[in-house]
Design the sequence.
């Protein structure tokens, strides 16, 4: 592998075809290219090349049993990776592709087991980003890509985050500015009778139900640890999205959350700890004496989603000893935000 990771800036709307051709060739030859999508930055490898895919697991330190999502630039490629297209899949592709919706479908034998982690299904999506689509088209192969971070860390929403985690371990990072949605795709399992959300993300349950009727949520989607369920999406069982510093999440009515956070901050400070607070705009002024990072207004979960991972990385860099985070209402995109925060908190969650 090269010593340093090449850094290529590209226009987010009209990427230079020569740069995309070079990056596509690197993928086709078995290299790893980090690229922007509308959700977060992805770490791509040729999905049909089991060895290239295995390197993704190696550089991220990703658990071997956590399957990868395959990214495609056209529906025909998606259909070639699947042995049976279940009812409803076409409608969902019409409605949400390109976009932050991953469909879990019965895998065709061409999909290497390194991608599916040995499952008989494969997760596929078409990203809504000109650079991602141009890269996949230039590669001429489907591209397996998890988030381009070290496993367990907050997902990268900028090329800078990618380099913080993976500099020197991958061939190229394409920089097209910050990712828009800021949270990963919704993962929807279509292999059973009723579609099941395995991971909440950029497309909400309400939006899905408008198109295909009843959708269930896997018991793991609210992100609470513990419980008896066996994860159907292997990714759900790992601590994830987490800053290095311990994070305590407080959920409930906004005023009570702020009151409890202030109390906790006082307790920690009296023990000589430096406290960071991940706050909503409405209550950010309440935390004198703590380092405060504002995620966004409670009224606008989409804004919080887009800033969440950058805010967690920022809190890490402030050199605090503990992070106290305000919960928001787990509805719509707020559910995806709370899924990530709960997973980042592990079992340090308080309800007030
Ligand atoms: P990441 O690549 O980090 O965005 O994570 C991908 C997520 O999709 C993980 O939670 C995986 O467990 C999930 N996933 C990918 N493929 C499948 C599949 N075939 N069946 C169930 N979950 C999947
Ligand atoms: Mg990830």
Sequence:
């Amino acid at each position: 592998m090269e010593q340093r990771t090449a850094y290529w800036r590209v226009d987010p709307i009209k990427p230079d075809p020569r740069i995309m051709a070079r990056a596509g060739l690197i993928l086709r030859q078995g290299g790893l290219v980090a690229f922007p999508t509308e959700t977060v930055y992805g770490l791509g490898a040729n999905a049909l090349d089991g060895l290239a895919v295995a390197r993704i697991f190696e550089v991220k330190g990703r658990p071997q049993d956590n399957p990868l999502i395959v990214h495609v630039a056209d529906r025909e490629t998606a259909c070639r990776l699947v042995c049976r297209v279940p009812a409803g899949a076409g409608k969902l592709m019409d409605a949400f592709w390109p976009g932050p919706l991953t469909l879990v479908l019965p895998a065709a034998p061409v999909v290497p087991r390194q991608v599916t982690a040995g499952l008989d299904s494969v997760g596929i999506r078409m990203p809504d980003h000109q650079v991602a689509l141009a890269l996949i088209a230039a590669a001429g192969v489907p591209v397996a890509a998890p988030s381009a971070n070290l496993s367990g860390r907050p997902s990268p929403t900028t090329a800078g985050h990618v380099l913080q985690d993976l500099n020197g371990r991958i061939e190229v990072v394409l920089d097209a500015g910050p990712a828009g949605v800021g949270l990963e795709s919704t993962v929807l399992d279509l292999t059973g009778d009723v579609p099941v959300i395995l991971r909440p993300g950029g497309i909400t349950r309400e939006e899905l139900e408008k198109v295909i009727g009843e959708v269930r949520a896997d018991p793991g989607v609210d992100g609470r640890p513990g419980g008896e369920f066996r994860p159907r999406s292997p990714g759900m069982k790992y601590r994830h999205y987490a800053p290095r510093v311990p994070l305590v999440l407080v959920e409930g009515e906004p005023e009570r959350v702020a009151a409890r956070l202030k109390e906790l901050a006082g307790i920690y400070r009296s023990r000589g700890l430096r406290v960071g607070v991940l706050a909503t705009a409405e209550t950010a002024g309440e935390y004198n004496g703590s380092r405060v990072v504002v995620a966004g207004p409670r009224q606008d979960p989409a804004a919080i989603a887009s800033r969440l991972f950058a805010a967690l990385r920022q809190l890490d860099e402030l050199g605090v000893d503990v992070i106290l985070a305000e919960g928001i209402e787990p509805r719509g995109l707020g559910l995806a935000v709370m899924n990530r925060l709960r997973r980042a908190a592990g079992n340090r969650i308080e309800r007030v």
Remarks:
- The longest strand covers residues 101-106.
- The domain at 247-351 is CATH 3.40.50.11030 (Rossmann fold).
